[in-house]
Amino acid sequence: MPKISFAQHNHLDAIIKIWGLNRATLGLMPRDAFRDCIAKRWILVAEIDSHVVGYLQFRYTFRNQTISIVHLCVDKASRGQGIAESLLNKLVDEYKSKAIGIRLNCRSDYEQAIAFWTRYNFQPKGNLPSRGNNPNVHLVVWWFSFGRQDLFSVQQNNKVKAILDFNIIVKLRDLSVTDNSRDEIRQLQSDWLATEVEYYQTSETTSEIFRDDNQERRERSKVFLKNFQELNIDKPSIKQIEAELLKLFTGTSDNDRSDRRQIAESILSGFPYFVTLDEGILKQAKAIFSLYRLKVVKPSALIAEIDLTIHAEDYYPSKLSANSFTIAKMRPDERSAIDDNFLNTGKGEKKSSFTGLINDLVAKPTGCVRTIKEAEKIVSVFGYFEQGETLYVPIIRTKQYSLRQTIFIQNVNDLLKLALSKNKNFIVIADSCLTDIEKDLLTGLGFFEQQNTYIRGIKSGLYACNEVHEVIAPIAAKIPDLRNFASGLTPDAFVPGLTLEKLLWPMKLRDIDVPCFIIPIKPYYAKSLFDTKAAKSELFGVQPSLIWSIENVYYRNVKPNIERCPARILWYASAENYALRQKAIVGSSYLNEIVVGPAREVFAKHEKFGVYSWKKDILKLVKDDPNAPIKVLRFSDSESFSLPVSINKIKEILTRNDESDNNFQSPLRIKNSTFMELYSLGNGF
Fold first, then answer.
1. Domains, the chain, with CATH or none
2. Which stretches make up the N-acetyltransferase domain (predicted)?
3. Rounded to the nearest 10 degrees, how much is the dihedral formed by the CA atoms of 593, 572, 410, 564?
4. What angle do CA 136, 139, 142 make, to 5 degrees?
5. What residues does 516 pair with on adjacent strands?
6. Which end of the chain has fewer CB atoms at under 10 Å, N or C?
7. Distance CA 486, CA 211 (A)
8. Which of 624, 635, 536, 639 is nearest to 580 (CA)?
9. Residue 659 φ then ψ, to 5°
10. Of the ranges 11-15, 293-297, 605-609, which one carries the lowest mean pLDDT score?
11. Using CA atoms in the order 82, 87, 89, 94, what is the torsion angle rounded to 10 degrees?
12. What percent of the chain has pLDDT over 90?
């Protein structure tokens, strides 16, 4: 029998050798992508006599609790011995309590593979177009369920959005032409990417094709472009960004102007990636990212990056910590700017209706309109009013620019916390001009679509699994889908329990068996990342209205390596001069992911989060060795406790619950019951 285990870095060459012999069917995969997956424990290997004879590469997405198989391959000489099945069995055993199922894509002409998936009891759930050149071949989406309710359908559109430069599209069109970049380009057509990435073209691409003097090639290009959605960007805004880009791209030729327009469209889309092979553009990648938070990447780099995105957008909470952002109640002298910038004529909205909506919100006793400004310019506006147990949001708009999705997510997060503070059971977003991406984001944030509005439930408190169905009945009466998650909950199957907790955040199920940890953090970082109570208590504290993001990261030493995910966290603020909230537990979060790797590499991939400086924070942590290993804890859905739990009280509770005594120099795993007692004290339950 083969030995099945998680791959170690010394297995890398053997894995790549097996992949290389089968790359014609597996597709291309950068070496760095294999390395990253090993670091994340996303590759299983089968060994016979210490020789790797097969591997299973996969991805685990915490947000929708789904496993996606990337490769399953056995060395030709070792086939027919049940090794592929053994690898799958190990994957199922490892994740059956953490995930809702396994998804994969398989070409419709791979008969042997289809027979294997069918034999293992995968079910076909739908078809996707193959990215190859044969129109008769498609991708079959296969699904292996762990028997739990799933908020997200197997084919929900939570794909990473990437914009392709015209030169990439041309090379994809003519893949049969051999050149030095062919393998690089072919990576974009890997079958496993079909449910992970969605490619877009800029409207400037059409102009590029129009300038082609070769009529036959021009017609082929028009047909090929139908494979990619076109960005719909406000043209006056493009001119402004184009003018700014002249500092980076000074040329005056048609190609130079086209490059500027493509990049300007990509910046304004708010999508995270612009994929190109243009060396002139790639040379300015760092400057473009610094100014606009658009990542200019080669195809191979895109594949290595896709695990860092949230849903269909890129999210930069660190940018919202900047002093240039403010949030405040709308002033009368801001009315004309709001009408000019946020009226959606593209969707047929009339000015009289928009103005009436704003006026109605201002006139309501519980109504309010708030503006978000960056450097004194209004970039977003939202309005709400209270009605019974519901917070209604009839308008939530954001300017079309690079931080559009980030600000939208932050606005929704702030509205959710506002509804919670006002003891509401529901928040309803009823803006008729939501974009498709915003609708996807709302679904991912726990909202359910109902009659052109989006509704989310809110519940606080601690409950047992057998109480939940009755407790949430009033909410489920308005959101019937929630009943599916509440029925049949058991303490040992914590995945559906965690899903329900997040859908009704900040509710907690006190008897589901979730790993729990107390993790030490310096008060400065706690205040900057999630502890709003600390910030509000300090005269010169950070601006709290816009920095507490849904998701963030915290950097730690690699050892001791006791954390596991998914998990619940209690944050212990350590001793620090002048900190008002220290030597106490000050908040809680969910731990979503743990990443370990060289400091420079890990920081580069997570720089968009948090308030960290490479020199001040990260280099200090690794004692000036940029290649030293470092650990990143990626966490979400944080709460700042109104009543910090002191060190003496913590020790008393640990002793009473037969836990290890600890001075919190490093993380401590605790029982679920201990977590609930400490959490209750922090919230004053």
1. 3-105 (3.40.630.30), 160-308 (3.40.50.1010), 317-457 (3.40.630.30), 462-509 (no CATH), 516-683 (2.30.130.30)
2. 4-147
3. 10
4. 145
5. 568, 670
6. N
7. 59
8. 536
9. -95, 165
10. 605-609
11. 170
12. 37
Q: How do strand 426-429 and strand 66-74 relate by DSSP bridges? A: unpaired
| Of the candidates 430, 434, 386, 387, the residue with the CA atom closest to the CA atom of residue 408 | 434
Contacts of 333 (CB under 8 A, 6+ apart): none
Q: Amino acid identity, residue 346? A: G
Report the distance separating Cα 267 and Cα 233, nearest Å.
10
For residues 113, 115, 120, 124, the Cα torsion angle rounded to the nearest 10 degrees is 90
- Confidence (pTM): 0.69
Exposure on the CB side of residue 90, measured as CA atoms within 13 A: 23
Amino acid identity of residue 456, one-letter, is R
Check if the beta carbon of residue 210 is closer than 8 Å to that of residue 236. no
Contact in structure between 667 and 517 (CB atoms under 8 Å)? yes
Q: Which two tokens stand for residue 579?
A: 């900190």
Amino acid at 136: N
Query: For 49-88, b where at least 16 C-beta lie within 10 A, e where not — what string?
Result: eeebbbbbbbbbbbbbbbbbbbbbbbbeebeebebbebbb
pLDDT tens string 370-425: 998 887 889 999 999 999 999 999 999 998 777 788 788 888 988 998 999 899 99
Q: Find where tokens 């760092």 sit.
A: 286
DSSP per-residue codes, 359-388: HHHHHSTT-EEEEEEETTEEEEEEEEEEET
Closest CA to 315 of 250, 197, 195, 407: 407
Per residue in 94-134, pLDDT (tens digit) is 888 778 889 888 888 888 899 999 988 888 887 776 655 56
Start-end of H helices in 6-158: 12-21, 23-26, 31-39, 83-95, 111-119
Asked if residues 160 and 306 have their Cβ atoms less than 8 Å apart, the reply is yes
Instruction: Give, in order, the Cα–Cα distances in Å from 133 to each of 185, 224, 495, 534.
Output: 14, 11, 40, 58
User: Would strands 197-201 and 229-230 be described as parallel, antiparallel, or unpaired?
Assistant: parallel
Half-sphere exposure of 534 (CA within 13 A, CB side): 27
Residues 6+ apart with CB under 8 A from 49: none
Contact 423, 333 (CB under 8 A): no
Distance in angstroms (rounded) separating the CA atoms of residues 422 and 426: 11
**In the block, which residue shows the tokens 């980076």?**
248
